[in-house]
Amino acid sequence: MLKQDKLAIIRTYYPNAVTLVDSVNRAIDYYEDVLRLEPSKIMFADSICSDDVNSIQYPTRAQEFLGPFKMGGLNGFPFTGLTGMKAFASHVPDDGAVLIYYGPHIGITKTGTIGEIHRLGQQKNSSCCGACKGALNKLLNNELVEGQVTEIDYQMNVLEQILLKEAPRIRAAKVPVHEATEVIYEAIDARINELVALTEYPCKYVILVGAILINSDSDMGSFTATRRFDIIDLQHNTRQSVLTNFLAGINQPLS
User: Taking 70 as the threshold, does the pLDDT of residue 140 lie above it?
Assistant: First the structure.
């Protein structure tokens, strides 16, 4: 299947989605051309789901960065917390940058079914993100209890509480799993920004890339719908969104 045909399927739900490979390639060009930083000067952390599909579909060029430091647990929430953020911040080159790519993931099959993918070696589709769909099903079946967070299933319970706080919004949505993923993205984005504000970085820049990571069938690859691309200049104490410029050239409408 041609790339544009794949994108047509994914963009049914995420109009600004691009392939993850194209996104990483353009990001590296941006860091080199605009920030004058080689990937080897950038300490990379990701806060994405621990689902094995994200390891299978991980972009090869991301290995040019230092790292990655893994911040995310179920569906990408940064469960390593402030200790994790401070840990990898101390690993960055003095004249380099910290890059954090974060967000939940969701599956879309090549037939356009959202919330599922066809995994290698399986005959049937499976949930993606399974944790998100599990929490969503409990929400829709009125099985969630406010404040119920256990030690034995802590990460899942946290996701459940995130969805429970936005229950009316999710229940009213045309595609609840899509809306639940949006809710989780907002919670991750808020937590990442909170952790960044509480951390000191001995480098030039902090780069925040927030997105919905979109997995698909094993022969489709992965995609990303970027929601935030901020450059925090630590030397000049400024923060700038470069999302529009970043997407230019890789997010052309399909003809």
Answer: yes
Q: DSSP letters along 132-166, please? A: HHHHHHHHHTT---TT---STTHHHHHHHHHHHHT
Q: Is the dihedral of CA 196, 39, 56, 107 positive or negative?
A: positive
Report the mean per-residue pLDDT for the chain: 91
pLDDT value, residue 247: 83
Rounded to a whole number of angstroms, the distance between the first and last alpha carbons of the chain is 16
Q: What are the two backbone dihedrals, phi and then psi, of residue 45, each rounded to the nearest 5 degrees?
A: -125, 145
Domain ranges in the chain are 3-129+182-250
Contact between 63 and 98 (Cβ < 8 Å): no
pTM: 0.93
Contacts of 32 (CB under 8 A, 6+ apart): 38, 39
Residue 15: CA count within 13 A, CB half-sphere: 1
- The helix (H) or strand (E) run that includes residue 55 is helix 52-56
Q: Please list, in sequence order, all residues whose beta carbon lies within 8 angstroms of the beta carbon of residue 16, skipping any fewer than 6 positions away.
A: 225, 226, 247, 251
Supply the DSSP symbol for 116: E
Confidence of residue 254 (pLDDT cuts 50, 70, 90): very low
What does the pLDDT average to over 171-200? 97
Cα separation, 162 vs 184, in Å, equals 7
Handedness of CA 48, 33, 97, 40 (dihedral sign): positive
